[in-house]
Specification:
Length: about 190
């Protein structure tokens, strides 16, 4: 049997289950399948996914609502992910979501075009590292809305070519983001 989903609509979900780091899950397509009940995954503090070549959906909006304690997210080498959030499962999009997320690291996601699909996320984000996500050509102010953001690491070429979805991005906010941008060195300086 090939693992495609971690959780599938559990009726008696044991909230003591803690995901830490998942590596080389070559057949996993999603973390959760089925309806997400209130409280599911609410104790999850950290999630790291490495080398999940078939994963297409990281979070649904219903999962976002439940990730109340997620502080760190690492996603690496998942070539089919085009956005961290899928909006397909719900018509209600109020936020912000991932309210206590402090660190997000995104590595080798060649199809990534959006971080949050326009949802307001991570108002307490402090550090963001992005490496080799060539299709992520635009950012939304919803992706970097935190006033606590201290560091954005990325390749210089990407930063220079970056466009913003919102035409109303204030000059002050753009200057602030430029000040916290740190050039990602080619010697493997990937940690936030």
């Amino acid at each position: 049997m090939k693992l495609q989903t971690i959780f599938e609509d559990f009726q008696d979900f044991d909230e003591a289950i803690v995901l830490g780091s998942l590596h080389y899950m070559k057949n996993m397509e999603r973390i959760w399948k089925g309806p997400v009940r209130k409280g599911s995954l609410s104790n999850l503090k950290s999630l790291a996914l490495h080398t999940c070549p078939k994963m297409t959906t990281l979070f649904t909006i219903d999962m976002f609502r439940n990730l109340l304690n997620l502080e760190e997210l690492i996603v690496a080498d998942c070539p089919k992910i085009d956005s961290l959030a899928s909006l397909k499962s719900s018509s209600s999009k109020s936020g912000p979501f991932l309210r206590i997320l402090k660190k997000i690291s995104l590595f080798e996601l060649p199809e990534l075009v959006s971080i949050s699909s326009g949802l307001c996320i991570a108002p307490n984000l402090e550090r963001m590292v992005i490496f080799y996500s060539p299709k992520l050509e635009k950012l939304s102010t919803m992706d970097v809305s935190s006033t606590k953001l201290k560091v954005i690491k990325r390749e210089k070429e990407w930063w220079d070519a970056l466009k913003w979805y919102e035409s109303d991005l204030s000059t002050e906010h753009e200057d602030y983001l430029a000040r916290i941008f740190i050039l990602l060195r080619k010697d493997g300086d990937l940690m936030a």
